[in-house]
Structure formats: structure tokens, C-alpha cells
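Researcher: Can you fold this with flavin-adenine dinucleotide in place?
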Amino acid sequence: MEELVVIGNGMVGHRLVEALRDRDTDRRWHVTVVGEEPRTAYDRVALSSYFDGASAQDLSLGDLSGPAVDVHVSERATAVDRVRRTVTTASGRELPYDRLVLATGSTPFVPPIPGHDLPGCHVYRTIEDLEAITASARGARTGVVVGGGLLGLEAANALRLLGLEAHVVELAPT
Ligand SMILES: Cc1cc2nc3c(=O)[nH]c(=O)nc-3n(C[C@H](O)[C@H](O)[C@H](O)COP(=O)(O)OP(=O)(O)OC[C@H]3O[C@@H](n4cnc5c(N)ncnc54)[C@H](O)[C@@H]3O)c2cc1C
């Protein structure tokens, strides 16, 4: 059997493993998935529906764990050794691989505005971000979204659904 390690358990890492598992009918591959988030993959595209009442469970894409797949959550890959073909994780796990996939997605760009790291300032990408925004909204009356793109407007609507007066600050004229 060959060992595939996938770093990242977002939508793409999940889809890859699902497709491989379906096609690998002669059981050539064993897969180990390492994801730093505290839960298995979920529908990030539908993240805003969390504020319309969808739960983390509703958004879940399902757990791929099984005889041919090990999934480790809350586990950040910290190093890859391409000579020894191993991945090291923050908890000290060392995972050997024959093939390695980096499905690590992206992180929100936070402009270097003074104060961006103060309490009550959040990005909008994970279920944990939404939980933190919900906690910050308790007792608040207004919220500001920096960035008026698609996600900014989704975030502004989320603030409205949380009962806040929402303001959007956008650089572009529209
Ligand atoms: C609110 C919102 C709405 C969106 N709406 C749309 C939409 O309508 N249409 C659309 O096409 N796209 C949309 N997107 C974008 C879409 O969600 C992303 O393109 C998609 O999730 C990318 O999937 P991915 O698996 O490549 O990356 P991600 O979803 O970012 O997953 C990567 C995973 O890898 C993990 N990871 C990163 N580094 C490590 C490491 N070192 N060790 C372990 N794990 C690691 C991350 O924590 C993450 O869980 C939206 C995004 C958001 C946030």
C-alpha cells in the first residue's frame, strides 16, 4: 500500500480524498489527512448560513475516517522533509508519505491598519471566526466591516442578523 498525506482538511482536501477513495477500488492507497481546524471539513461557501440558523453539523461535509483514511483535526503541519519524505506536526507526530498534497487554502489578508489586532476585530473565514463575531456582538449596537466585496457584504448581513447596525467601509467608489 502507498501512503498519501494531505495537509489541510478544507473543501478541496476533502473532495480530493473522497474522489480518491471512490476510484481506488484495488485499495492501493492509505490516506492520512492533517487539518489544523478543530473540526473536519465543512461547506465554507455556505458559511454565512450559520447566521440564518445552520449549525456546524449542518455545514459539515462528513468525516472521511475509515479503514483507508485517518483524519487528524486540530493538528497543524509544521515541517516537510522532502528527503526523508515525512511531515511533522505541531504535536510532534511524524508522518511518512509516498505522495504529499498541500491543500492548505488561503488566509484572509488583513491590511496593516493600526489596531487591527484589538479585541473585537475579526476575520471572516472559519466557524470559530463566526463564533467569535457572535460573542463580540453581544451587548454591541453597531458593527463595521472593512471591505465591501462579496464576503464583506455577507459579513454586513451577518451583523444585521445579529441585531447590529452595520457599516461597510470600502476603498472603491462602488
Ligand atoms: C464566507 C465565505 C464565503 C465564500 N463563498 C464562496 C462562493 O460563494 N463561491 C466560491 O466559489 N467560493 C466561496 N468562498 C471561497 C471558498 O470557500 C474557498 O475557495 C474554498 O473554501 C477553498 O478551499 P480550500 O480547501 O482550497 O481551502 P480552505 O477552505 O482554506 O481549507 C484549507 C484548510 O487547510 C488548513 N490548513 C492550512 N495550513 C495548514 C497546516 N499547516 N496544517 C494543517 N492544516 C492547515 C486550513 O486551516 C483549512 O482548514 C467563500 C469563502 C468564505 C470564507
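Model: Folded with flavin-adenine dinucleotide in place. DSSP finds four helices and nine strands in the chain.
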